[in-house]
Design brief:
The complex is a heterodimer of chains A (about 230) and B (about 170). Chain A is α+β, with helices and mostly antiparallel strands and about 230 residues long. Chain A contains 9 helices and 6 strands; from the N terminus they run H-H-H-H-H-H-H-H-E-E-E-E-E-E-H. Chain A has helices at about 10-15, 20-35, 35-55, 60-70, 95-100, 110-120, 125, 135-140, 210-225, and strands at about 145-150, 155-165, 165-175, 180-190, 190-200, 200-210. Chain A has a 6-stranded antiparallel sheet with strand order 1-2-3-6-5-4, with helices on one face. In chain A, helix 1 (about 10-15) crosses helix 3 and helix 2 (about 20-35) packs across helix 3 (about 35-55). Chain A is elongated. In chain A, about 25% of the residues are buried. Chain B has about 170 residues and is mainly α. Chain B is built from 9 helices and no strands. Chain B has helices at about 5-15, 20-30, 35-50, 60-75, 95-100, 105-115, 115-125, 135-140, 145-165. In chain B, helix 3 packs across helix 4. Chain B is elongated and about 65 Å long. Chain B starts with a helix and ends with a helix. Classes of the chains: A alpha+beta (about 230), B mainly alpha (about 170).
Chain lengths: ~230, ~170
């Protein structure tokens, strides 16, 4: 009597269309006379049908296809383009400012340009307009010098760098996504201070290089609190 | 056109037809549509970036490998395929937890989510990635025999899990 437990792999392969015609015919003959294998086959087929329904075959969404096609369109860059950075101050949405970045003709230009375009077109970043630095911030001596989109701890985030009197503060902003609002909390990580808060719309995480009082001053100025 | 442009055009011609299948694979791996979107975008981005390292092997398997590695990075698993599955404890779902799901689809989703990732990814590549055993073997850099046995084990665990809560086949 054939050991039908050994046939399990064969039954799977048959369902996946991976058996040679000869092996398939041989298995078919066996299944016709073996109730156990026939039942097993039937259960596997039903399982596969249910699995197929779990993630139904669908074309990629038009928006996604558009993003991919745009990224895969060869670009003919004229010889005269120069590198220019556009700072994200004055309340410009980060997405708009990223589009204006241009690169000279080096080997890495395509992948960085593609990454920037992809970042600009990602809907979650487009929706998260970089909040304009509060007026109190510059009044307190902090100047926004750089802004970029990045992935931070699994979040699509905006990362901004502020400088004041030789110290710098990095501020990461990402959508709160339902996390509750809370006042600034302090944490320390490997000797560095991190202050984080949530205003109900966005999460803000600030860390500085240099003395802690800079971070405190920054957070107070950013939140416009005395 | 520059060499860069030619490369981009070549990649576009070869990879774009795989978009729909890669999107389904991404949904199978990642679970949510936004995570799947992200996975697909990152996959094409890396595919273009690494296209110089593609030497004419099966492109579907090549792109699937990229997508699977991105996914593993995101869930914190190493890219090396687990060798000793026998020693990986089966995080079997609590039958009550499965039974509490309000419909058959959700129960199956729960069972699927509880498979060890090394088994789950083979199943996802087969059922949603439209890859043959050989393509899966290439994508995961494992022998075809291992693909077959892992696939059979994955389906068997789902079947057994289903029986534990339903008392009859799925």
């Amino acid at each position: 009597m054939t050991d039908c437990t050994a046939r399990a792999a064969e039954l799977n392969a048959w369902l996946d269309g991976e058996l040679s015609p000869g092996d398939a015919a041989s298995l078919a003959r066996h299944v016709a006379i073996c109730p156990a294998c026939a039942a097993h086959l039937s259960e596997l087929a039903d399982l596969r049908a249910r699995l197929a329904q779990l993630v139904a075959p669908q074309p990629a969404p038009a928006a996604l296809r558009h993003v991919i096609e745009t990224r895969l369109t060869p670009r003919r860059l004229p010889y005269q383009w120069r590198r220019r950075w556009v700072w994200a101050g004055a309340g410009l949405a980060l997405a708009a400012s990223l589009v204006l970045i241009m690169f000279p003709r080096h080997n890495h230009e395509t992948k960085e340009f593609a990454a920037v375009r992809a970042a600009a077109l990602r809907p979650d970043i487009a929706a998260l307009a970089a909040p304009a630095p509060p007026a109190a911030l510059s009044a307190d001596g902090f100047r926004l010098v750089a802004s970029r989109e990045d992935r931070v701890a699994g979040h699509s985030a905006i990362v901004q760098t502020y400088v004041a009197a030789g110290q710098s503060v990095t501020l990461c902003i990402w959508p709160a996504n339902g996390e509750p609002a809370h006042k600034p909390l302090q944490a320390h990580f490997r000797g560095a201070a991190i202050t984080y808060w949530n205003n109900g719309t966005n999460e803000f995480w600030a860390t500085s290089f240099g003395a802690t009082p800079v971070l405190g001053r920054f957070v107070r100025a950013y939140r416009d609190t005395p | 056109m520059t060499t860069e442009d030619h490369r981009t055009a070549a990649f576009r011609t070869l990879a774009l037809p795989l978009l729909d299948d890669l999107y389904r694979l991404a949904r199978g791996l990642a679970g949510s549509r936004s995570a799947a979107d992200d996975l697909v975008q990152e996959c094409f981005l890396r595919g273009l970036r690494y296209f110089d390292s593609w030497h004419g092997e099966d492109l579907r398997a090549w792109m699937a490998a990229i997508m699977r590695n991105i996914h593993r990075d995101r869930i914190g698993l190493p890219n090396m395929t687990d060798e000793n599955l026998e020693y990986i404890a089966d995080p079997a779902p609590d039958p009550e937890q499965v039974a509490m799901s309000d419909d058959h689809a959700q129960r199956l989703r729960t069972l699927l989510a509880h498979l060890p990732e090394a088994l789950r990814e083979v199943l996802v590549l087969r059922e949603y990635g439209n890859l043959s055993y050989e393509q899966i073997a290439q994508a995961l850099a494992i022998p075809q025999g291992t693909v077959m046995s892992r696939l059979a084990r994955a389906r068997e665990r789902l079947r057994a899990g289903w029986l534990a809560t339903h008392g009859a086949g799925p």
